[in-house]
Amino acid sequence: MTLRVALLRGLNVGGANTLPMADLRGLCEGLGWTDVQSHLTSGNLVFAAEGARPELAAALRAALAARGLEVPVLVLPLSEIRRAVSGCPFAPAAPKQVHAGFLFGPARIDCALFERHAAPGDEIAEAQGILWLHTPGGFGRSKLAQRFEAVAGAPLTARNLSSLGKLIQLLDAAEETR
């Protein structure tokens, strides 16, 4: 079985689409996935499964929908998470201030919208199909946090470099035990 990452958009955020991680892991195990681990409560999964990425994402979306949750899902291989981190165009002092926007469609960056809402020092860049946002003043305080998707021009799910690093650690540990 191949190790993968599933990034769920909008799970357990702002009191919406709530699902305990133990239930989410159980849901994935019910799909036949193995070695299922979660990181944080916002929908970061590491698992092993066979099948094409779109079919795995569709299976998880359907299982979530059966529980009344409409949650977009991206399934990525370890190599893509590593490539994202190594291709980060920003050299941050604080990994929690740099976010990777994993896109559900092609980006059409709205530079005017970015400029209108950017704080001093905020930066945006696209690299290898990922939209990167650097907010030195903090993502949660940035006016761009709520507009990241609008700036991208496509639906996305964002993770900071700290979370991506933890997912790589989980994947590496899972690989070592195989």
From TrEMBL:
Pfam families: DUF1697 (PF08002). InterPro entries: DUF1697. It comes from the Bacteria. PANTHER family: BLL4334 PROTEIN, DUF1697 DOMAIN-CONTAINING PROTEIN. This is DUF1697 domain-containing protein. It comes from Alloyangia sp. H15.
